[in-house]
């Protein structure tokens, strides 16, 4: 039984933290679902949305939760065990959360969300994709495309390889491994879980936007980019370089196929998915998280190459109204998965769902 003094002490600590009760002062908690967003505009609620706000408002994540060692507010939750994490300073905050002894994350399901460039050869702006792999587009060799051999499609190729679209023959080109299989730049997700999530969400009605509908008319009739937003399964490519255009889109399609052994399809590109998955793989290796409970859900805010008749420089970074629709549709597609996990937690706590 706590003494009155202990209650006063806890209240004083909470007051010092601006009303946020530190999770360390409570019993160890095990979130059922953590929705991870990469950034937010301004406040978490009530103003122009970023990747986080629709989730905060629609999942009623009203209670801020402190994370040991992190000075800014990054974590919220609701009464059903759903948490929202915004990585204001990047993947380091994943590590901070996992290493906080107040949390037990071994049975937590993760949904990494956010907006991306979308491959117009596969889907349109506003579309949402559940990934089977997250592919790392950072570690490679690069030659200026103006100086490449005449039979090369571009100057990007795997470290240790002799040309684009081939794997290195000698794994020791990296200096620290002995098996080429260890060089993979594709982080496999639980495909059965991804298919299960897709099956739950595929019938969701997505939002559309008049301006985006007008822009779709610039694409050839019948092409994926000309169609209304859709929900699909497809891979996420993460690269710190913000690339754009047909030549680099060809590289992205090829790079995803190379590292997934022709099984993956490039759909979404962004700048942080690869870093987040590296961190999660390390945390799984250390025993803090379950890798088979990780999902990646990305939505397209802009095409990864311009439509016919639009210049590269005009198209580059022109996310416009696509952002708002991508925020909206990301939450719409993910909400049924969160709801199902929470509603039947007694089933999913110990048994990870899967679909053939």
From TrEMBL:
Residues 1-25 form the signal peptide. It holds the Pfam family NUP. The keyword Signal applies. Keywords: Signal. This is Purine nucleoside permease. It comes from Asaia spathodeae.
